[in-house]
Amino acid sequence: QFNILSSEQLDEYLRDPDFRRLEPFVSRNYIFIFLISYLIKFINFLNIFFSLNENELKFITELIISFFPSFLFLSSSLLIYKSYEKKVESNILLFGIFLFFFSSYLLNFLSSHFFAEATIIFLLSLRIYLKQKQVGLVYLAIIDLLLIKIRVTCFVIVAYFIIEEIIKNKTKFKSYIHYFLIIIILSILYNYFSFQTDNNEIIGRITKSACFFGENFQKIIFQYIYKIFLSYFSLTLGVIFIFPLFILFIFQLLKNMSNKILILKFLTLGAIISLFALEEYWYLPAGISGHRGIAPFLIIIFPDIIDSLKFFIKKNSKISLFVGFSL
């Protein structure tokens, strides 16, 4: 609908109460909608010089918008490369990026309309990159706030980043105080300038999921545990089968059982999967193979997959390449 609106109509549309009540799509994609609205304004401005007719302008606008998730996905792979280029040999790093982004089900995001997931994986990659560059807390706080506003499960990944810093014990207590103050201030500003969403909508979806199986409490618990089980072991949805590189992470975890960061990553992914399992449509079906919700968060285990690849390549490079492509 954006494509047929002028700048003035677009402003009016964004302020319309009916638009503000579009849940859950708008809340998940609000950042994307905000950016796209200004992109469309810019395209309309440029059309003053090109004088395209309505159909031509619509075609060009939709073409640019459709490439946006692909741009975020490709940018994510570039950010990950820049994050680890000085720590990992380039041939191993490129091989790992190829396997992770372009030989797994994450490739779905290269040509999909899943703006929320594409934005999450981009923001996580950007955060990893900026953290490597040791940027100021304000930039990390902005990214964390945006993640939380896109999807409630991102609270878990933000908590992971904070706990990881505590375990590494490289951050002063004063910095944590500054970080939380920045988050609070930014959250107030965000809520002031953005539309207000219905917070009970998430609770409603969880309740609907529970009621779907009747009022038998034992059955509800069983179905919940079963959905968690499927999230790991289902042939079509389980992370072990749809993302076999996860096995390399498990190998790294078993090889370093005393590593608190690896244990934290495993628990973090487990917590995210458990949160998704609360919903009726827990794997977010929408024309994508595998569990769409968990996909962006797998980026936190990328360095561990690289460590496993390095281990196997040192043992036998030819077998490692074969196994890597097989996964």
Q: Strand tally, please?
A: 0
| Inertia-based shape | globular
The total count of helices amounts to 16
Distance between the termini: 41 Å
Largest sheet: none
The helix-strand sequence is HHHHHHHHHHHHHHHH
Strand content: under 5%
Q: Structural class of the helix and strand makeup?
A: mainly alpha
The radius of gyration computed from the alpha-carbon positions, rounded to a whole number of angstroms, is 21 Å
User: In terms of per-residue confidence, which ranges show pLDDT below 50 for 5 or more consecutive residues?
Assistant: none
Helicity range: over 70%
Quick structural summary:
By secondary structure, the chain is an all-alpha fold. It has helices at residues 7-15, 17-20, 25-50, 54-84, 90-102, 115-132, 137-150, 154-168, 173-193, 200-211, 217-233, 239-242, 246-255, 260-276, 302-315, 317-326. The protein is built from 16 helices and no strands.
Overview of the molecule:
The protein has 327 residues and is mainly α. Helix content is 72%, strand content 0%. The protein has 16 helices and no strands. Helix 4 packs parallel to helix 6. The two termini are 41 Å apart. The mean pLDDT is 81.
